[in-house]
Write a structure and sequence with these properties.
The structure is a homodimer of 348-residue chains. In chain A, 24% of the residues lie in helices and 28% in strands. The first copy, chain A, has 348 residues and is an alpha/beta fold.
Chain lengths: 348, 348
């Protein structure tokens, strides 16, 4: 066991502050990573504040982890000290349920072990995340990073990236299809990049003209202003797929109307009750409203390889570890393009 | 043109009463049918009462029409006088949009012509339905009835039948799958029969123990009481597909929880805003909420042929034409097993 420098929160409304935590020793199947960068996800704020009533304090957030291998267990085959490696939202799952057998560890029927705040036999009793100098996890949950993907823009691929890549792949987005990405934030900006790289015609759907222009620079072919009833009416029934990244409950009616017959809208942002879903829009058009959660380990590796092949990185703003509380404040105001990434060298 | 005995309503809260209406003369592509039976759909009540604000009075309801051909136009190829024939919810569509080209006339992008209350160049300016002694429609919207399907139980196949058959086919329901049918009424009882005939393991999900027993007699393998939290919890995550026939807004949460990862719930009853859809259930399980509207003409014929091959009829209670208002009253109280069918001999 070793004591690791970390940042954690100790209770709701607490700031994230320097803390020493213990990591487990490196077991036979484990990989230890010295963390270089960790992305800052909205989920981190929810856990710090206990918004979902399930936080175990002290919580060390962070599940967009990139670094270098410092030690491997005796049975580890695919990693060695010095390799670049990454960890996303999952560090374990049952491995035997039908979903795990299909590589859908994110839907593990026995409950996956999240990178932080999940019960574990490790010291402390709960997993600790990437706001930390080091992490230890099972080899089978460690990702490889293609050589050409460098710098802090890799880290957000591990959550924002896979969260948008997985539904686009699951719903077979391909050339010739018209895809709308609703909302331009950490998730939305990755949705635009992936949709474009997959060959689809990509429209950014946003309430902000400025964000529309920003989205064009990221690769969106078109911009649709959701504040304009006229603009929405012109595009009614024209989309094959909508990736909805809005993080809160909202009226889905204007968006569902954009879908073609048999089209689907996938919600990846709002993990909460939706109060306005009009069944008539589903019935008169056989449309689907669906959702998607991050991705499995094999698919996350596929996504990283796809990013390597297409030179895709997240757009990020690098912060010091002690700038995290200010970053949280700015995220609450959507004041970030498009993801904060912590430089963990500032903690060591 | 000929004046036909019919029953129509003249305004909201009006009773359906005897009326003479004019039908168009039989054109070159038309088929005239002497109506023997017409099913009574909840939609009829909605139109009589103008619940959806779109009724054109006088309205002659009825879109589950079965009878015998009395006259055909000079270009008609597949029907001759004396043939048994049927008409469902559609009597025309644009024929040229992408959906019509795919045989999805029910999703015609230019708006299909409904069997009643749709604009037409016919006398009266609107189509008139099957509460009538005779009807004239285009050959391409006329269905053939397999010889072994006899009696009043054929009529409801034209709406209740296709409304439940189409989604089960579209979502590829097949042997080995576990299908839940939510609600036992005109739609639900057909869903049970079709699910069973397609080889699925069928569960009736109902709030009524009595309806559960009735569903078993119709072919359901299992019954799940939606009033029992324990029973629901035991079945969580076990269904491949749910056919939701509840006709009004309701909390979808207990039902979505029943779906497996990648499962879908198809709403065919509640054509209205849904106030309780929890996105977390869609996201943590990649579940879909979808809808479906009747079926196209080719699929409706396929459904009738499937019924012929599997000896499937609706369970009905036959009424006289002048019993229609009482039937509406009983339908409002769900007091019908499972569909009223008008014997039009009582009108002629």
């Amino acid at each position: 066991m070793s004591v690791i420098k970390s940042y954690s929160a100790s209770g709701p409304k607490a700031r994230v502050i320097p803390t020493n935590i213990e990591r487990r020793p490196v077991g036979p199947n484990d990989v230890q990573i010295a963390i270089e960068h960790c992305g800052v996800c909205h989920t981190d704020i929810h856990f710090v504040n206990n918004d979902w009533g399930m936080t175990n304090y002290p919580v060390v957030p962070g599940h967009e982890i990139v670094g270098r291998v410092t030690e491997v267990g005796s049975s580890v085959k695919n990693f060695k000290a010095g390799d670049r490696a990454a960890i996303g939202c999952l560090v374990d799952s049952c491995g035997v349920c039908v979903n795990c057998e299909k590589g859908l560890e994110q839907y593990c029927l026995n409950g996956f072990t999240a990178t932080y705040n999940s019960e574990t036999t490790d010291p402390g009793g709960f997993t600790y995340g990437g706001y930390s100098t080091s992490v230890v996890a099972k080899e089978s949950f460690i990702l490889s990073i293609p050589d050409n993907l460098k710098g802090p823009g890799v880290a957000p691929l591990l959550c924002a990236g896979i969260t948008t890549y997985s539904p686009l792949r699951n719903w077979n987005i391909s050339p010739g299809q018209k895809v709308g990405v609703i909302g331009l934030g950490g998730l939305g900006h990755m949705g635009v990049k992936f949709g474009r790289a997959l060959g689809a015609q990509v429209t950014m759907i946003t309430s902000s003209e400025q964000k529309g222009e920003d989205a064009r620079m990221l690769g969106a072919h078109e911009v649709l202003l959701s504040t304009s009833a006229n603009a929405l009416a012109k595009e009614a029934g024209s989309f094959d797929f909508l990736l909805n990244t809005i993080p809160v409950d909202h009226d889905l009616t204007p968006f569902l109307e954009l879908l073609k017959t048999d089209g689907a809208m996938c919600v990846v942002g709002a993990v909460e009750p939706l109060s306005k879903v009009n069944a008539a829009q589903l019935i008169f058009g056989r449309r689907s409203l669906t959702g998607s959660l991050i991705g499995g380990i094999a698919e996350t590796q596929e996504m990283l390889n796809f990013c390597g092949g297409n030179d895709i990185l997240s757009e990020v703003e690098v912060i010091r570890m002690d700038g995290i509380n200010e970053a949280f404040e700015r995220m609450r105001k959507s004041d970030v393009k498009y993801r904060f990434v912590i430089d963990l060298a500032t903690l060591s």
